[in-house]
Structures are given as structure tokens and as C-alpha cells.
Design a protein that fits this description.
Elements: H1 2-9, H2 13-21, H3 25-29, H4 38-50, E1 54-59, H5 67-87, E2 93-97, H6 109-114, H7 128-144, E3 149-151, H8 159-172, E4 177-181, H9 187-194, E5 200-204, H10 219-235, E6 239-243, H11 247-259, E7 268-272, H12 277-285, E8 290-296, H13 301-310, H14 312-323
Parallel strand pairs: 1-2, 1-8, 2-3, 3-4, 4-5, 5-6, 6-7, 7-8
Bound molecules: flavin-adenine dinucleotide.
Flavin-adenine dinucleotide binds next to strand 4, strand 7 and helix 13.
């Protein structure tokens, strides 16, 4: 039951300061986040694509506290896209973004100025418009180099806003993807809505600490929901992206794709950098489209803690490395 404790720590500023400052942390972090700058990450993109893999790039960062940080996040993605353009890889390298990093949880500018709701999007509080305004240029820049952006799913309180931003972006950029999480009760309905022509949907189990009112808590129930939702996506008209390292779900995914009559380029697998790397190569060698979610940057704490929470052995390894230092 370590997972929920680690997830709670992933939201603690005190733990963030302690862990980020620990001298050995960096070498453990590198397994999952293989660079801090665009310059570090370009050779990794070249290496993975040369091996037949595709990528989705995440500039790590979330839970920002000022509009300036949201603008900096936008600019970091724009700089990344500039570098990717030079590599001329088109849709083989796309972006993944977390809207919290683009200002979604901040007070909207109008609210901050006069204490009144902005009136622009009455269904949402906070920085919904700010996140939309910051993410749009990133989606535009990605489209201009022939690739696209997927909106990651964060905790359940952010999802109505995420789906509304997704719908808005798709009016001009229909390729914009989004993520749905099998552990949430709402997701079966979201999947039915999203399994439509032209949509790109990544299905994952879900990585946040969610209450029993909104999410399955039992691993077996989550896996069963994952299969039901994947079946809906495979039988629909969209483009399913199977985001999992779970060997059982990967073979069920292959079987569901076959039964639905999908060709190899009508769905894809996605896994995280640093996790089951041999499996990335095996699936690509079998002719599957295999996309590696590759995170980089300096604000790695939240991303790293979720990777620890997913597998307690990672935490043991991390603690051992601190003790043996
Ligand atoms: P699990 O049952 O957790 O793992 C199956 C096996 O994979 C494990 O037995 C182990 O061998 C290996 N494994 C899994 N995780 C780890 C790890 N951290 N370290 C080492 N080995 C591991 N979640 C969100 O909530 N929102 C998102 O937007 C999101 N995007 C994602 C994008 C991609 C491409 C992927 C692959 C995952 C994403 N996730 C996201 C995380 C996801 O929700 C799960 O937390 C994570 O994928 C672990 O679940 P699993 O399906 O791999 O199955």
C-alpha cells in the first residue's frame, strides 16, 4: 500500500524540497527523465527514432503558481518544436502536455484583476482560458511541422476543463489527442463519446490518487475497466493509443485490434521511457507503431514520484541508492 503514500508525497512541497535536494536522486531520476535541456534530449530523439520507435515528448512541470511560469512552459515547448523541425521527423515525434503547466489551475486574468469571474467560460474556474491561450500556439507550431499534441489527463477535478479545451482545439486542429484513465468511473462514457472518426485517444490506467467516489480502487477492477474501454475504442472510428506496460493488456489490445479488423497503422502502443525498453523494441520489430513517452526538463518531481508510486521496487531502489551513498 505504498503507492497512495508516495502519491500523497508527490503533492507535498516539503517532500519536494527534500527529495529534489538529495545528492543521489539525480542518477535515479535519469532512468525516467533522460535530460534537462533540449540539447540533452535531441540525441535521445535521434537514437530512439533510428531504432524504429516513435516519440511523444513531455517537458516536465505541473502545478505552477504564476502566469509567467505558464508562459515559460509554452515557450519551452515552442523551443522544443523548433529543434524537432530541424530533425524533419514529422508525426513520428509528437508532444504531450499537461494543462496544469499552462496555467489551468491559476485564477483567470479577469478574476485576478477584479475578483469577478471572467464570464468567458462560466462552467470553469481558474485558468481555463489561460491554459487554452497558452497551449494553442504549441498546437499550431506542432501542426506547422506536420505533427500534433496530446493533452495528458491529470487528476479528475481538471478533466471537464481538459475535455473542453480538447474540443476547442480540435475545431482547428482535429488531430489533437487526449488521454482517458481507466480507473475513473466516468471514462466508459467519455470513451463512447471520443470513439469517433478523426479522434486520437490514449487509454491509460491512471496515475493519480483518486477517491473511491470517482474511481475504482482495486487493481483487478481497473484492469477489467481498461479492457472494456479499449474494446469501445477499437470498435469505434477513432485512433486508439494503448498506453500501458502491462503484458496482459498488450496482448489483449492486439487481439481486440485484430477482432475489430484494424490494420497495424490504425492503432498504436505507447510506453514510458525507462520502462520495459526491450518490449518497446520487440513491438516495433513486429511491425507495431510503438511510441515512447519521453520526459525531460528540470521540474521532474511530480513525474518522478508517480513513477515510484507505480512500482514499489523503484522506491526500494531509490532508498537503497541513498543509503549506499
Ligand atoms: P501496471 O500494472 O502498473 O504495470 C505493468 C508492468 O509494467 C509492471 O509489472 C512493471 O513491470 C512495469 N511498470 C509499470 N510502471 C512501472 C514503473 N513506474 N517503473 C517500473 N516498471 C513499471 N497516467 C495519467 O494519469 N495520465 C496520463 O496522461 C498518463 N499518460 C501516460 C502515457 C503513457 C505513454 C503511459 C505508458 C502511461 C501514462 N500514464 C498516465 C500512467 C498510467 O496511468 C499508469 O500509471 C502507468 O502506465 C502504469 O500502469 P501500467 O498500465 O503500465 O500497468
Amino acid at each position: 500500500m505504498l503507492g497512495p503514500v508516495i502519491l500523497a508525497a508527490s503533492r507535498s512541497d516539503r517532500m519536494r524540497r527534500l527529495i529534489s535536494a538529495a545528492p543521489v536522486t539525480k542518477q535515479v531520476v535519469d532512468r525516467f527523465i533522460p535530460g534537462e535541456t533540449v540539447t540533452d534530449i535531441v540525441p535521445i530523439i535521434e537514437d530512439l527514432t533510428a531504432k524504429g520507435l516513435e516519440l511523444t515528448m513531455d517537458v516536465v512541470g505541473e502545478d505552477i503558481t504564476t502566469p509567467e511560469q505558464a508562459t515559460a512552459a509554452r515557450d519551452a515547448y515552442l523551443a522544443l518544436i523548433d529543434h524537432i523541425e530541424d530533425l524533419d521527423l514529422g508525426p513520428r515525434v509528437e508532444m504531450s502536455v499537461k494543462l496544469s503547466m499552462f496555467g489551468q489551475a491559476l485564477p483567470s486574468p479577469a478574476t485576478a484583476l477584479n475578483g469577478e469571474p471572467s464570464g468567458l467560460a462560466p462552467a470553469f474556474n481558474g485558468g481555463h482560458e489561460l491554459a487554452l491561450a497558452n497551449v494553442r500556439p504549441v498546437v499550431e507550431a506542432a501542426a506547422a511541422i506536420g505533427t500534433t499534441v496530446t493533452l495528458d489527463a491529470e487528476d479528475h477535478t481538471t478533466l471537464d476543463s481538459m475535455f473542453a479545451i480538447h474540443e476547442e482545439l480540435r475545431k482547428d486542429f482535429p488531430q489533437t489527442g487526449c488521454v482517458i484513465q481507466a480507473y475513473l468511473f466516468r471514462t466508459e462514457a467519455d470513451a463512447r463519446r471520443l470513439a469517433a472518426a478523426g479522434s486520437r485517444v490514449r487509454l491509460v490506467k491512471g496515475a493519480y490518487k483518486e477517491p473511491a467516489e470517482v474511481a475504482h480502487q482495486n487493481k483487478h477492477e481497473i484492469d477489467k475497466a481498461y479492457v472494456r474501454i479499449l474494446k469501445t475504442l477499437m470498435e469505434g472510428d477513432g485512433y486508439p493509443m494503448i498506453g500501458s506496460h502491462d503484458p496482459r493488456l498488450i496482448s489483449i489490445g492486439q487481439e481486440l485490434a485484430r477482432t475489430a479488423g484494424r490494420k497495424l497503422d490504425e492503432y498504436e502502443f505507447q510506453m514510458l521511457y525507462g520502462i520495459r525498453g526491450d518490449e518497446h523494441l520487440r513491438l516495433a520489430a513486429e511491425g507495431h507503431r510503438m511510441r515512447v513517452y519521453t520526459a525531460y526538463g528540470t521540474d521532474w518531481y511530480g513525474y518522478f514520484m508517480r513513477r515510484l508510486a507505480e512500482k514499489p521496487a523503484n522506491l526500494r531502489f531509490f532508498l537503497r541508492s541513498m543509503v549506499s551513498k
